Amino acid sequence: MPRPILPVPLLITRPLDDAERLAEEVRGLVPGISVILAPVLEIRPLPFEPPSEPVDLVLISSQHAITTALSCENLPVVCVGAATARKAAAAGLTVQATYPTADDLVHGLTGRKGLRALHLHGRHTRGHVAERLTLAGLETQERMVYDQIARRWTADEQRRIFAEPQLVVPLYSPRSAQILSENLVGYAGELTLVAISEACREAWSGPVPKTICVADHPDGETMKRVIASKLS
C-alpha cells in the first residue's frame, strides 16, 4: 500500500503574535495544513520620548507600534497594512487612512503641507519614511519604539524543523531572511521560499532553495495568497 502524501509544513518565523495570526489566516485558506512556529525575532518595547513639537498625524507601519500610538493624545493614525489598521482600530485608535506598503504611504501623503506627522517604528527599519515625507512637504519626526532582537531556535525547535524533508518558508524582511539563513545552516531538505520583496530574496544566504518566488506586491494579502498556493 502506498504511503499517504503528507502536507508540506509551513514554517513561520515571524515574531510570535504575527506568526500566530498568519498561521490562523493561512489555515482559513488551506485547511488541514501543518504549521511550525519558530520565531527568529523577538519584539521588545523601548521607552518612548514624546515629539518635541505638536503633531497632527501618527504613522505606524507595524502592530508593534500600536501601544505607543495609544499614548499620543487621541491623534489620528495612518497605517501600513490592513492587518495593522484593523488591530489599531480594535485598540481604539482612529484610523484615518491605510496604505498597503510604506512606499504607498509616502506617495499618498506627499504634499500634505502645513501638517506635522510622527512616524513610530522599530530599531531595524527601511524606507526612510520620515526623511522622504519631510522632503515632500509633510514635516515628519520619527521615534524608535520597539526593538527586534535576533532569536536562535531551541534545540527542540531545531530538531523538529531539520527532521522535515520539505518546508514552505515565508520571508517578510531582509533582516529576518538573514537570521533564518543562519538558523537553517545544515538543513538538507527541500525549501520553497516565498519572499515579500526582492530585497528579502537578495538577503537569503541559507541552503539553496528548490523554489523561490517573490510576491507581485509587497503586502500581507498578496503574501497569504502566494503562501496558500504553495501549500495547496
From TrEMBL:
Q: Which residues form the Tetrapyrrole biosynthesis uroporphyrinogen III synthase domain?
A: 32-222
What is the designated name of this protein? Tetrapyrrole biosynthesis uroporphyrinogen III synthase domain-containing protein
A GO biological-process term: tetrapyrrole biosynthetic process
Q: Quote one Gene Ontology molecular function term.
A: uroporphyrinogen-III synthase activity
Q: Which InterPro entries match?
A: 4pyrrol_syn_uPrphyn_synt_sf, 4pyrrol_synth_uPrphyn_synth
Q: Which CDD domains match?
A: HemD (cd06578)
**Out of the domains of life, which is the source?**
Bacteria
